[in-house]
Amino acid sequence: xxxxxxxxxxxxxxxxxxxxxxxxxxxxxxxxxxxxxxxxxxxxxxxxxxxxxxxxxxxxxxxxxxxxxxxxxxxxxxxxxxxxxxxx
Length: 88
Known about the structure:
- The chain has 88 residues and is mostly helical.
- The chain has one domain: lambda repressor-like DNA-binding domains (434 Repressor (Amino-terminal Domain), Orthogonal Bundle).
- The chain has six helices and no strands.
- Helix 1 crosses helix 3.
- It starts with 11 loop residues before the first helix and ends with a helix.
């Protein structure tokens, strides 16, 4: 069962950015993830992008291959968010 995020950093904006840069819908992305062995439905993936669910490492590995990107692309800007969270 996936864990809910409680005031933690999330990669939602980066996941959405990478997907839109490739011009792929959530449905098509989920179909490709399923072909690669990640059983992810569109509703679950939408929750990843919304920051409502933590994304599994296996999904990040598959996405890296699909997008042909670096792992850093998933974490871009999160260090700035961490600093602002610690100020609260």
